[in-house]
Amino acid sequence: MRNASVVTEFILLGIPHTEDLETMLFVLFLSFYIFTLMGNLLILLAIVSSAPLHTPMYFFLCKLSVCDMFFPSVSSPKMLFYLSGNSRAISYAGCVSQLFFYHFLGCTECFLYTVMAYDRFVAICYPLRYTIIMSHRACAILATGTSFFGCIQATFLTTLTFQLPYCGPNEVDYFFCDIPVMLKLACADTSALEMVGFISVGLMPLSCFLLILTSYSRIVCSILQIRSADGRKRAFSTCSAHLTAILLFYMPVVLIYLRPTPSPWMDATVQILNNLVTPMLNPLIYSLRNKEVKSSLRKVLYQLDILPEQR
């Protein structure tokens, strides 16, 4: 990537309109960050340590937990660093890295939710062929594909943003380097690039969402054909956690990137929810309604001496 810029570092101004709230925000965000890492690590340990959970659905959930640990780690450490009273400066390379890894992990999760919907579609609509269709090889290809296409999308968006010259102001009116705020600092006309970026950022999630919608439309039709009420309840219960996580993932994307008139404070608030709160909630969403995960989690917590052994 060619750097034609004279700017060597940027200054992160943080969340708009939160002056004199640094200490409170530091404690709050640090708590969210720790709970996010701990929750997803426990889900990961619960799945890896339990042989009955070594199935395609939980394999993809493992990858989601890994993404949910790394995703907030793109922006949170630097944000916590300057909220604790340290420098707000970030190097040019650091800014490029933040933007790339934010979109790489975000796009990977977007593709992963699509793959997880396909997995549920096959499990419910073609149960007798499930193990053949979702073989170990197929799961490995799908999991690798989510990261591969996420990397392509992130590389395109990062190159699009930092091919521009940055030769004047270097104050980023946000808590991390993202496309909308970086384009405002460029010393060139960005209208064409904004349109290309808008289409790219909008088209990819929309395509994934339509595929998810198609999968779940077929799933609902299949569930309604199940004669027993208990069978329908189990099928809906299996999919409800995934649908909840999808809604929590897609709502911030629409509010941040697809609104015609962006609002810095609104964007920052929604972004915080997207970066810290949603990854923190995912372990709860996938464990509270899942007896197998809850049972495995109890075993992990007993082994770690966090819970007393039940008699």
From TrEMBL:
Transmembrane segments: 24-48, 100-118, 139-162, 195-214, 235-258
CDD domains: 7tmA_OR10D-like (cd15228)
Keywords recorded for this protein, A-Z: Cell membrane, G-protein coupled receptor, Membrane, Olfaction, Receptor, Sensory transduction, Transducer, Transmembrane, Transmembrane helix
Domain G-protein coupled receptors family 1 profile positions: 39-286
Single annotated GO MF: olfactory receptor activity
Location within or outside the cell: Cell membrane
Cellular component terms per the entry's GO annotation: plasma membrane
InterPro entries assigned to the protein according to its UniProt record, in alphabetical order: GPCR_Rhodpsn (IPR000276), GPCR_Rhodpsn_7TM (IPR017452), Olfact_rcpt (IPR000725)
Membrane topology reported for the UniProt record: Multi-pass membrane protein
Main localization, broad class: membrane
Domain of life: Eukaryota
Functional summary from the UniProt entry: Putative odorant or sperm cell receptor.
Protein name as it appears in the record: Olfactory receptor 149-like
Organism: Bos indicus x Bos taurus
Gene: LOC113886466
